[in-house]
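Hi V.,

You were right to ask for the full record rather than a summary. Here it is.
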Amino acid sequence: MAATARADNDQVLSLDHVGIAVHDAKDMEKKQCLGAEDESFDYYQRAQWLRAAVLGATDGLVSIASLMMGVGAVKKEFRAMLLAGFAGLVAGACSMAIGEFVSVSTQYDIEMAQLKREKKRRKTGDVEVQDIKEDMDKEKLPNPVQAAFASALSFSVGGLVPLLAAVVVKDHKVRLELVVGVASLTLIVFGVIGAKFGRTAVGRSCARLLVGGWMAMAITFGMTKFIGSGGLEL
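Predicted structure:
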């Protein structure tokens, strides 16, 4: 009897081990499937809107910060810097929206014409399948209005950063330093966000934005200071 009971226990333990092994195998297979799905993810589609968002926000930040640095190089009045920054923000947002709308509209027209040419070539076959495929292709077409709004919004968000920083301080020198500091910190944040979503090197992404922003602000400040100080006769 004892031998029979021991054999039964051994059989139960063996079945438990088999069940655990099967469960582990299923978990491993699921992880492999998830990994394959992650590797097959189309980062090109993500790069389209990521590029527009990062470009718009960075453009707004660098443009308004550089503009305010240029005005601050020759004007110490708080009102002059603020008005210049606000005018640049509105003009830049409108320019980005119009440019993006025209660009995406052109892309939409080209892709739409291509779909019509492909539809003429596919006259044979199942009509219902062709209609479904055509609807799916149309859903992938870019939206000019949406792209224009997103571009203007991202520019405005980036441009508001140096404006809000300048409002806080009244002292001219401290205001300029604060604009540069806040703009630099925000560029690093943009670089990290872009690198995380695009799966690229964080350091390289941040360095590109930071060096580019510093160059833009330094060149604008230096050239405006040179002209405003009478170094160039007009």
